[in-house]
Amino acid sequence: MDRTAYVRVEQVKPLGDLMQQIAEHKGCGTSGGSGKASCGSSDGPEDMAPEVWEKVKNHPCYSEEAHHHYARMHVAVAPACNIQCNYCNRKYDCANESRPGVVSEKLTPEQAAKKVLAVASTIPQMTVLGIAGPGDALANPQKTFKTFELIAKTAPDIKLCLSTNGLALPDYVDEIAACNVDHVTITVNMVDPEVGQHIYPWIYYKKKRYTGIEAAKILTERQMQGLEMLTARGILTKINSVMIPGINDKHLVEVNKAVKSRGAFLHNIMPLISAPEHGTVFGLNGQRGPTAQELKGLQDACEGEMNMMRHCRQCRADAVGLLGEDRSAEFTTEKIETMDVVYDAESRKAYQELVERERQATVMAKKEEQEHLAKLADAEGISVLVAVATKGHGKVNEHFGHASEFQIYEVNAKGSKFVGHRRVDLYCQGGYGEEDALATVIRAINDCHAVFVAKIGGCPKEDLTRAGIDPVDRYAHQPIEQSAIAYFMEYVGKVRSGEIQHQVRGDASIRQGAVLAPTA
Length: 520
Hints:
By secondary structure, this protein is of the alpha/beta class. The chain has two domains: 70-115 and 125-325, Aldolase class I (TIM Barrel, Alpha-Beta Barrel); 370-510, Dinitrogenase iron-molybdenum cofactor biosynthesis domain (Nucleotidyltransferase, domain 5, 2-Layer Sandwich). It contains 15 helices and 18 strands. The strands form four sheets. It has an eight-stranded mixed sheet. A five-stranded mixed sheet has the order 14-13-12-17-18. A three-stranded antiparallel sheet has the order 2-6-7. β8, α8 (252-261) and β9 (266-271) form a beta-alpha-beta unit. α3 (109-122) runs parallel beside α4. The longest helix is centred in the last third of the chain and has 26 residues, at 345-370. It starts with 14 loop residues before the first helix and ends in a 23-residue tail after the last helix.
């Protein structure tokens, strides 16, 4: 590792102080389905080639387990785009929305490189630098590859990623490989131009604008060609797909099969974001997004074909921090100009070693608990959903009223796995509980049997109980999946004894109380 390219800044803080500082920032806390470092499912180091494991083990987007320990950042150096999507409206100088295509400021490659050093010196578990817009990375090739060149020289331990719609991808695969970019994301919403014409009004290809089926046909052919080329070069590829009810929701099963057959490593099916205030075509014409249950159903249907990513946060093009948090406001160009930045590779490495020890302790805690599941032979067919309030690090460590999202885990006799997240309105605002907000929280998690929290007040606890959701605070600050398995074993014991009757929680109308009627 080249440690000669340091940029002087403020003195690097001690590791203990850094650990405390980072713990105070909100991130997500999820982990894989079997206690191993997951790549969308339960894959760990024993399930893949060593060179692949090295690429994914601390990548928060490619490893489900890693994403609550390691951070990423995006730099907004690519404003132009070569296609138009009906779900996209790029916004600049916007700090109030959290979705792809939105940034507070555009950067030059030189500004981006300085920002990366500033972030990496402050957030030592930041391991990944991505270019995801706000347009398309490969519609801005000079800016994209110049940025990668600068980062490779000054921060060689940071992984490089890019996201693209794939239209220009075949033209730049060789350059991507030459820059040591190990991870590429392609947004693929269809493999049938009949479907694609309803998603893409136009593309701009070889200095000509195409529309309708012709545009969709060119786009899908280029996407599949680019994916095959990346696979041939050993570059890991994640496929992003936007689930649009009534347009491509059923078709995404075919997309899943097509990208798997061409070597895609991971498939991320995301919900359409279509609020009218975003100004997208779909938002303005009333196209709805999927429900959480619809999204999970589609992900479940595709999971048998290939690894599924379920922890995506549909990040801004200038996102900074753990997935589920945004610290970009701390690193504006104006603030960075006043910072003395030192890129201390040794301190970063030492901190990441601490992160790994914490991570392995969490994995072992889950493994120990999971061994007891083998004794639950009569639990076959029982499955529960648990919502978790967490700040990150794989722990139940958030107050119910302070949670802006809940992580959802599915637990059965085979173990626990993360299956999604639900964004909610804050219940506690200004020190007081908001009843309207509580109602939205209950609606968001009404298919869950329980909600795990670090702490909860009496009023929300009563309302959750009436809604049939068990509010649980006895696992405060404990590992999430270990706690979920322990809860499941208690739950099965109550079913065995007749204290409760197991019911599937897909329909809110079945909830009449926290304790269900005894088995007849």
